[in-house]
Design goal:
Blueprint: E1 2-10, H1 33-62, E2 68-72, H2 74-83, H3 85-96, E3 100-102, H4 117-135, E4 141-143, H5 151-159, E5 164-168, H6 171-174, E6 182-185, E7 192-196, H7 198-205, H8 220-228, E8 236-242, H9 256-270, E9 273-275, H10 278-284, E10 290-291, H11 307-310, H12 313-323, H13 326-329, H14 335-344, H15 348-351, H16 373-394, H17 399-455
Parallel strand pairs: 1-2, 1-8, 1-9, 2-3, 4-5, 5-7, 6-10
Antiparallel strand pairs: 6-7
Length: about 450
């Protein structure tokens, strides 16, 4: 039988609050807690919990015949724990079914793979441990931020021990080839490469409720009919979409959940397809050839490149400024700074600075908190300025800076000691005053008593 491989991406950044120039050096908390909590709770109610319930019911009806995969960024898992722990519990129930595979990605959903191999590796291992702890699975398949991939990135992923990686089946890298086969990395053939069928994926993710679409309405019957028309030699159809498709990007009233519910039944009744996870595809199929990707590709916009995040001077300046902290972050031990470092690397901060006009841009900028790319840039750079001050205080750049920091720490310690002694002196002075006052009262009372006695 041929395979349908369904993978869902889940990521929500820690959105920054309005951080002005005058906050620099005074306010070290950068996040809009109200907005972040509102977004997570909205998505939990409208999308995640309901979609997970639908998938659990499908697995209950079809058992191991129905399988899907998820990739959830570490930043999103942190927010689930803060604002909606019931969502994690819901995913843990899915993990226990044995029909759901959890993939690995960068913890921060970052662009580290494009610039810093060491940081990239650290984030991947951090995320891998997160998946082990929460879902009791050892990830063997990797999906990079926004499906960013190149030959060299794939080689780095293979060196980390992954068996397979997911990326976009972009036309300019495929040429005449079909995305509906398993491929391998051009540098390290041990890494299998699964390519997203963007046409069928986008039919669900973007066009499902578009009444102007010539194929509207999309039903499970129609979708299976398209699958049956594919070349019989093609082995796997990879449907990779954002999980927010269900209930948020495509509202419940559109019939998207009914489509998801009906699809497995129509597939098994009317086709020779079955459902497999990315890990199973990588294990059970043989690559037909290597896929050459000398320059990074992604699943964003029509170009399928990285210009959505690094396509203008604002984005490049911000990314370069962030990257300048990398070396010193390796020596930083401050827990709060390390946590902020993870959150500030999210690719979304750079996406908000994009000046491109997207044909499918309404979905990615749905929760964009800024009025313009320039606002996003100024806000982010203000935050980075404060972050740099904090990092510099903890991890100076040179020997002179080290001496300054040591002297500053010494002065701070002296100040604390002086404050302590001043408080103690004030306490003793206050105690002495009370004692003197009490003695004076006692003496006065005695004198008064004698006077009264003599008068009598």
């Amino acid at each position: 039988m041929r395979n349908i491989c369904i993978y869902f991406q889940i990521h929500q950044p820690m959105r920054l609050k309005r951080y002005r120039f005058f906050n620099i050096g005074n306010d070290h908390y950068y996040y809009d807690d109200y907005l972040n909590e509102s977004v997570i709770n909205r998505l939990a109610e409208r999308s995640y919990l309901h979609a997970n319930k639908v998938i659990r019911n499908i697995i209950k009806n079809f058992g191991k015949q129905f399988k899907v995969a998820f990739s959830i960024s570490g930043i999103t898992l942190d927010q689930f724990e803060l604002y909606a722990p019931e969502v994690i519990e819901s995913f843990q129930k899915l993990a226990k079914t044995g029909s759901v595979e959890f993939l690995c990605e960068t913890y921060s959903h970052s662009l580290a793979s494009l610039r810093n191999k060491d940081e990239f590796t650290k984030q991947v291992y951090k995320q891998k441990q997160r998946i082990r702890d929460l879902f009791d699975q050892e990830p063997t398949v990797f999906t990079n931020t926004e499906l960013i991939y190149s030959d060299s990135i794939g080689n780095d992923v293979a060196e980390m021990g992954f068996n397979a990686m997911i990326t976009e089946g972009a036309k300019h890298i495929l040429g005449w080839k079909s995305p509906n086969y398993l491929y391998c990395n051009a540098i390290n053939p041990r890494l299998k490469v699964l390519l997203r069928n963007f046409r069928l994926s986008d039919d669900i993710a973007f066009r499902f409720s578009n009444r102007n679409w010539s194929e509207f309405p999309l039903t499970a019957d129609k979708f299976v009919g398209w699958l049956n028309k594919l070349d019989k030699k093609e082995e796997t159809v990879n449907i990779f979409i954002d999980y927010e498709t269900f209930g948020e990007h495509q509202w419940m009233e559109s019939g998207i959940f009914e489509f998801l519910t009906d699809l497995p039944e129509k597939v098994y009744k009317k086709s020779n397809f079955t459902f497999s996870t990315p890990g199973e595809i990588a294990s059970n199929l043989l690559p037909v050839s290597a896929i050459s990707v000398p320059y990074p590709v992604s699943w964003a916009d029509e170009e399928r490149d990285i210009t959505a995040w690094l396509g203008n001077d604002l984005q490049l300046d911000a990314f370069n400024r962030l990257s300048q902290f990398s070396e010193r972050m390796n020596r930083c031990k401050d827990i709060k700074i390390l946590k902020d470092w993870q959150y500030l690397q999210s690719s979304d901060h750079f996406y908000y600075m994009s000046t491109k006009f997207f044909s499918d841009g309404a979905i990615p900028v749905y929760f964009n908190p800024y009025e313009s790319p320039y606002d996003a840039y100024i806000n982010y750079m203000n935050v980075l300025s404060d972050f740099g001050i904090r990092l510099h205080a903890q991890v100076p750049e040179g020997s002179l800076d080290n001496e300054i920091v040591k002297l500053t720490h010494t002065i701070d310690e002296k100040d604390e000691l002086i404050k302590k002694y001043e408080a103690e002196l004030q306490r003793l002075t206050s105690t002495k005053t009370k004692i003197v006052t009490a003695k004076n009262k006692t003496t006065s009372t005695k004198r008064t008593g004698k006077t009264s006695a003599s008068k009598k």
